[in-house]
Amino acid sequence: MANTVVSSSKFNAWFGDNHVVKDVTIGIEKNQVIAVMGPSGCGKTTFLRCINRMHELIPGATAKGSLKLYDDDVYQMNPIYVRYKIGMVFQRPNPFPNLSIYDNVIAGYKLNGLKMQKADLDNIVEKSLRSAALWNEVKDSLHKKGTFLSGGQQQRLCIARAIAMEPEVILFDEPTSALDPISTASVETLFHELKTNFTLIIVTHNMQQAARVSDKTAFFYMGELVEFDETKTMFTSPSDSRTQNYITGRFS
Amino acid sequence: MDARIGIRNTKSILFKSVIIFFAFIITIPLIIVLLYIIEKGVMQVNWHFLTHVPVPEGETGGGIANALVGSLIIVLMSSIVAIPIGMLAGIYLSENPGTKLAYYSGLCVDILQGVPSIVVGIVMYFWLVKPIGFSAISGSIALAIMMLPIVIRSTEQTLLLLPSSLKEAALSLGVPYHRVILKVVVPCGFAGILSGIILSIARIIGETAPLLFTALGNNYLSTNITKPMESLPHLIFTYATSPYDDQHDLAWGASFILLMFVLFLNIFTKLITRKWQIQL
Prior knowledge:
- The complex is a heterodimer of chains A (252) and B (280).
- Chain A has 252 residues and is of the alpha/beta class.
- Helices cover 36% and strands 27% of the residues of chain A.
- Chain A is built from eleven helices and ten strands.
- Chain B is 76% helix and 0% strand.
- The longest helix of chain B has 32 residues, at 245-276.
- Chain B has 13 helices and no strands.
- Classes of the chains: A alpha/beta (252), B mainly alpha (280).
């Protein structure tokens, strides 16, 4: 599997004594959309936050095991470098309220104090906003505050902010759960376009969404990775009875 | 049944009238003080008053230039000491709630806030004035101590209100912790922190007790911070208790200036919180 971008083997994570991710072994290939689903509290978000080492920022949170970005162990790398390479979009849109739309897109450069030419920055802003399908809506108001946008636009602004750093992988933590159906649809369309350049890992509560957007789906239950397979296979003939039960709505 | 409802409605109306009445009552003390000070003080204030130093007893004229300059210098020095320390400590408290250090230093901040200003003054007198003499510096340090708790608590409370998603957004972009705090968290809470700072200045500019022991007072215009220096509250204290009418007038004028200054700072704070408050 030369194409594997993110892989973990026997990966575990805890909140204090609470063992929330148990022996997860997974290999995620380049330029795919991976949906991670499972009932509440199954450890899917925790696993996602382990990938860019956001998990360890919570007091008492620990992780153990191997988690690799290509051939480098994420837990041997500097977390700051990891987060350059692995971007993240959160559940609720969280543009920086003190920055304009323009500055929000290049926040990764600006806040890190990287000096760049104005022309390069202009390029990055336009390219990222176009990739996030937001350019046409905001091109005339780039210097307004990002918080004046609607919820769906704010979320696409956050996606643009992640894209601007040109990461290898973008993690999405239930990116549409705070959005209305129309904004959700626009974000979902975006996933298809983004996968040509990035690898996307999307945590979702919504099975229909997983089925709509992903190439492969991972099903987490009680901290374990129960099944990881092609989305089609997963939703038509799951091999594990727990997956079957979840998909058919016997528990949630 | 109908009668009961009538009684209950009457009680509600009565209760509402009582709270409205007291809400109105509390504005009266300020209005009385304002009117009285304006009546007594506004006549004293003119260009001569603001630019001249007091004259010896028995002579007419003279102004409060020494106290104005002194108060500004002392408050400025206190701010230079208290604002950075207070903000940094406030950042720690908001970032690490629940730690032992946060608990105990938070407790100390609360107690410090309750320490009477005269006690701060006397401690400074023994620690600073006895070894090095009366000076504006020791006065500033005493006032800085009075300022600290307000700056710390307002910074802490402001930053605690910011959503954690803001910090996560910055961290997920690979921004190092110190930049997350300095470039994202503090700017987003800037309006709140600044209004805390301004209110703390409004609070200390009228403090008299700590200055009695430390900056002492000075009849002449002095900008030497290692020597005694006059301040507005100290000038009011000395001249209001003197037997001369001219000096009483000077004290009224100084009170008016001081009051206007505090009033201005409070209104200014309201304006910045409204204008610079960041929409989350």
